[in-house]
Structures are given as structure tokens and as C-alpha cells.
Amino acid sequence: MSTVNREIHLASRPTGWPTAENFRLVETPVPTPGPGQIVVRNRFVSVDPYMRGRMNDVRSYVPPFQLDAPLDGGAVGEVVASEADGFTPGDVVLHGLGWREYALLDATAARTVDPDLAPLTAYLSVLGMTGLTAYAGLLEVAGMAEGETVFVSAAAGSVGSLVGQIAKLKGAGRVVGSAGSAAKVDRLRELGFDAAFDYHDGPVGDSLRAAAPDGIDVYFDNVGGDHLEAAISSMRLHGRAAICGMIAQYNDTEPPAAPRNLAQVIGKRLTLRGFLVGDHGHLRERFVGEMAGWLRDGSLSYDETIVDGLDNAPEAFLGLLRGENLGKMLVRV
Amino acid sequence: MSTVNREIHLASRPTGWPTAENFRLVETPVPTPGPGQIVVRNRFVSVDPYMRGRMNDVRSYVPPFQLDAPLDGGAVGEVVASEADGFTPGDVVLHGLGWREYALLDATAARTVDPDLAPLTAYLSVLGMTGLTAYAGLLEVAGMAEGETVFVSAAAGSVGSLVGQIAKLKGAGRVVGSAGSAAKVDRLRELGFDAAFDYHDGPVGDSLRAAAPDGIDVYFDNVGGDHLEAAISSMRLHGRAAICGMIAQYNDTEPPAAPRNLAQVIGKRLTLRGFLVGDHGHLRERFVGEMAGWLRDGSLSYDETIVDGLDNAPEAFLGLLRGENLGKMLVRV
């Protein structure tokens, strides 16, 4: 076992788009567990859009990242040292201290997973927070019913691609996705989306009307901005938006242009509802059961974009913000 | 009985703020009822902000008003001729053909009310659509719970003043209202609001933070724009907005500036929900029972601004848009 640990620190807070200079690779000693603690050698760490918000020094639902300290986020790895009951070296665990090779954590903050049941990466994507976000947002927050038309933005991303597939598996009448390239649009069609468009090809409102001429009932929002405005315009009576993210504006330095058609929520009796996956843990058992079944019988696919090397984690994160990933963006440590 | 009927027609569609020239007083013969029909001599007609939207030639939840035809809207009056079972001259009825002296309508579109139980005007305000809008929006759409902090805009208006009082009667911890003049703010304090402010006195966000330093749980929106933005910023986790109207932008000719802080719905798990009172008729019986009780025991007050003469109905409507009313704006025919 190496005695040198490597971590990615936040070197400075980005203004607008982050750059490589906002991050710093730092070497530290591999930690030693105290009572009740474990040390985990991370194998895969997750980079996610919400992390951009935590790079700003503003109070939010999660505290901001601290300067000159390691970033954190979802990770899966092997226990290499344990002073905690129930954990022995070799155990594979899921936890929240990514962006580093070796993580020291209280054992209560780790959950053992079975590496024979699914690939390690699945615990960070389809069977993890990503999957539950898609499942809970679509079915609980938006309350999708059979026969409804669903629109999801960033549809080739980790959450969006699952939203569309779960919608079809749950009986949606029509599923439409938007994405940022022709290749992604092709992939959405392979995944069973009824229609998909590249949002660069014209005004989102026009593309959405063409893809769903009879309107939409549910919008799963990962993008905000013009996508949300288009969704509101296309919504039928009693439409619902589950608002998961607004990646279009995470790097804005000015307050973003919000939907100019918000008044339509009245006449059409629309509901816009923001959510965080953490509020929907009660669905986990049902979620894992259904998802595992769909994975087994081949009715659900998931994409991963894996970047090698912890030193490339900042670049992986920047690529995610630029939309360079297909499905879940992960770093192999 | 006069043989001349007078009606207010839409002479032209307003662009931006309506003017007197958009309306025309037209004399027509008093109609004669056909089978199943009645003729009603209107006593009071309602003018409401939503009517502004119907003056535009756009499809909405109600069809637009037609040019060179009478406007319509809530009205109460006496039956003067009837060819319908169950209706005799002298009956007092509530119906939807206001903006005219004599209304010809199918008896199925009229509802008999008891003039001894409440003043005629109450059927257009506190015991009518206005009251149900306040009641349903606060209790069903926003789901206000005991102890919560409630903010309502246009709080001295017909709906807003009831929202605030119902909130207090239902156990809200703190009720805050905004209005457009010092006199209205004084009136809100008399009505039992815990805090009230004139939105002209500074940025709405600052005034709201001062009035509700610990934040708000429920926002009843009659205004939109900067009021909605302020409410989103002040909302606590799991806050809910019942969106009833956006009077601030009804006369806008450009798409309005929408809340620039909409992304907060995610982290704070907010719900924004538009509604129309027509979807909440199932609450009517409970609503009338509770409201009548509160009126009897003096725990609920309502204000009316009554303009005399049908020829002044356009001016009453324009005054409503300018915020010149305290409580419900009505025209005595």
C-alpha cells in the first residue's frame, strides 16, 4: 500500500466557467483510521453538475467547498484499513468522499455494496443517486401517469437517459429528449426515445413543438433557461415539471433570463417543483428492485464516460459542464 | 320595466394599458326569454383582473372576449322574466353575464341565492368566486399548515385580504401582506395582518425580509414579477407558492422579467403551482360553511369598492388595474 495519498483541492473559486487553475493536485500522507473509522482506496469517483454550485461561496442546501481543502462527492472503493466493527479490508463501500485516492471516514458514512451483483460503477450511476434521482423525479415529484407525454432535457446525460427509459418502461405514451449533438440524438433513439433533437438545431420551443405536436404532460428539467420556457409553452393542462437541475446557468455571472411565459402556470394549472434526491430515500428499496430487474432482462441500458486518473478529475468535471459525456461521467482512480 | 338594455362592448383590443376608448356603451332591446331561459336585471357586476387577459386575442383557459360584443363576468340580479321551471320574477340569481343591464341566459347557467342570508354583493365577493379563490388557493393549492408564515401580495385586494384573514383563522404563525399605498397598509394591520408594507417603499425583497426575517413557507401570488422573485428568495425549505394572478404584467407588451432566482426551487425544494378556482368547486360547501360562520361571529371582514352606473364599468375596471380599489371592485348597475 502506497504511503502517499493524492487529493484534488479547490485552489480558487471560479467566476463563470471554471478552469484547470481552480483545482490543485495535493499529496498528503495516507491517513490512519481512528476508532470507528475506515480508510478506503477509491476506485471510481463521481463528478456531477451540482458540484459547480458548491464551488461558489454561497449557502445552499449543501455547504460550499472550502478553499485549499479536498473536494468531495460520491465514490466507491475498497476498505484498506478498518477500526470499525463490520468492516474489514477488501470490503467494497460506497461513500461521499471522492476526489481523492484514499478517504478516511467514519464507518457510519459508508455503505457496503456487493461487487458481484453489479459493476462497481453502477453503484455511482444506475443503481445509485443518479438512478434514484431519475426514478424519484419522474414518478414521485412529477407523478408521471401511463399514457402521458414526457420531455427530458440533457437526455443523453446520466439522469436524463434513465428518465426517458424509465418513462417508457412505466407506460409513457411518448418520450422526447433533447441533447447537444447529433451522436447523442442517435443514442437517444437507440435507447427507445420516441423523438429526440439537438438543441443547437433551432429554438428549443420550435423543436419541442415539432417533436411533441400535441404537447407534453411532464417535463424533467436538467437545464433550465430556454428549455424550461419551451416546456412551459408546450405543457398541457395540469402539466408538471420536476426541476432537478439548471446546468445552462450554473456558470452564469449575471442573473439568468428566466422563463418569460411563467404566467402560463395559472391558466394551464401547471406545477413546477424543485427536488433533491435526498428527500426520496424512502423509495430506495422499490427503486433498486425495479432497476435491477430491468437491467437483468435487458430492458434498461446505461452509458458511462470514464476518465482515467485522479489528476484528470478536474478535466472530467469541466468536460461534464461542456456536455462531453455520454451518460454518467466517472473518474477511474 | 325599461325596454332599453345597455351593454358594454369591447370596441377594440388594448395594446398595453387599456383606455376608455377600448370600450363602448351600446343600447339594445331588452331580450325576451325563450324556452328554458330567463332574463335577469343585473344589480351588481364584478370587474376582475383576469378580464384583462381575455381582451387579448389569444387562446387561454377562457376564450377571448369578442370585438363588438358585450363583455361578460360575474353578476348578481333579479329575474324579470322566466320561461324556465324553478325561476320566477323576483328571484335573485348569480350568473356569468355581467357588463350589461339585462342578461338573457339559460336557466341552467344561473344559481338562485338568498338575499336575506347575506348582502347581494357578498355573492360576488366573500361568499363567491373571490372567497373560494382565497380559500382554495391557500388551503388546498399551497396546503398551508398551522404555524407557518404566509406572504400574500395585492393583500388589500378582494382575494388577498381574505387570504390573510383565512390564514390567521387557520392558525398561521405569521401573515405578511404587500399593498400599494399607506392607507392599504393601515387597513391590513386592522384586518389582523402581522406585518404589511407598501411595495413602493423599496425593493420588495428587502421589505419582505424585514417583515418576515425568518423566511416564509407559503406565498399567495396575485402580482408576479418582483413579488414572486422576492418570495422565492425568502422561502424556507419546502416552501409553496399558489399562483393565482400576475397583475404586474397583464398590461406588458414585452415578455416580462421573470424571477431571476428560479434555480432556488431545487435546493429549497420549492413548489410553484398555478391554479384556477374552477378546479376547486368540490370545496364549495365546506368553504361557504366556514366563511359564513366567520362572518357571523365577526372574525372576518371584507371590503368593497362600489362604482355607480354601468357606464362607469370601464373606468372601474381601469381603476382596478391601477390598484384604486380596497377589497372587491364592483359596479352597481
TrEMBL record, chains A, B:
InterPro entries: ADH-like_C, ADH_N_2, ER, GroES-like_sf, MDR_fam, NAD(P)-bd_dom_sf. Residues 19-331 form the Enoyl reductase (ER) domain. Keywords: Oxidoreductase. SMART domains: PKS_ER (SM00829). Transmembrane segments: none annotated. One of its GO terms (molecular function) is oxidoreductase activity, acting on the CH-CH group of donors, NAD or NADP as acceptor. This is Enoyl reductase (ER) domain-containing protein. It comes from Micromonospora yangpuensis. The lineage of its organism: Bacteria, Bacillati, Actinomycetota, Actinomycetes, Micromonosporales.
